[in-house]
Amino acid sequence: MPLLEFILFIAAFAVLYESSRHVLNSSIKLSQMFGITEMAAGFIIIAGATSLPDFMVSVTAASIGRSAISLGDVLGSTIANIALVLGVASLIRNVYIKREQTLESAELLLFITLAPLLFILTGAITYREGTVLLLLFFIYVLFILKGRLPIAAHAARNKRVLFPELTVFIAMMVIVFASSHFVVEYGIQIAQALNVPDAIIGMTFIAFGTTLPELAVDFRAIRTGKVALAVGDIFGSCVINLTLVLGASAVISPITNGFLEIFIPPLVFLLALSSFLWYVLMKHEAVKKEHGLLLLIFYVLWLVFELTGYRVV
Description:
The protein has helices at about 5-35, 40-50, 50-65, 65-90, 100-120, 125-150, 160-195, 200-225, 225-250, 265-285, 290-310; strands at about 95, 285. The protein is mainly α. The protein has a single domain, classed as A middle domain of Talin 1. It has a two-stranded antiparallel ribbon.
């Protein structure tokens, strides 16, 4: 593997991670300024910010015709959000979720997971399927806005504070956009050097990197007792990846037959993972430490399968 490309890939990811962290921090401050509730901030503001690397990487890859990286990143990041991020978070502290939140969140995620699986089984994810996924995203946002976004009447809206924060937010988004381009570029070069398909690089190497913002914020959130924010971020990021990110990528560059069969195992695994999460939450109204350990074991086994089994696909 070329050493220079690997160093540049790590450097680009470091910039992507750091700029995403600043986007996240600005999102938190902006949500506080407008009095958005913690759960809603997790579902929309925080999840949107932490999903930004996935969005930019996937859209950038799709724009240069590397759709396998886009779909791979979406699936790999979604799996990592559930198995890795939630697994680590629940090992820190039991994650308790009320049953009504479970019904809304876990069932919604389970339903949305079915959409890309059905599309792939039909042989393609074109702009039509991408448009459907984008519509699902907007329906999801309206669903969240309807019940979880009360605005406090006394929310701070000082322009002298708001304007600098918005400036930081926009500037960091620009840096995320630029660094994501280099992540995709050097990721492709590494994949070619290792003779590994784009899909595998997207599902493992790149997906792990773009999941780091979620892992960082949810780790801090759980440790400080902000469980609702962490849960909202995890579920929200999964839904955003499977709808907005995948939908936008498909509209830009259709994902057609030829390599789609490589994505069937991870999609089936994601469906099984979502079903397991729904069952655990429905039965226990919590993801406890033993469940978190199982999720981490599942994640490691999935990584091993993807990294060692792709040659037989």
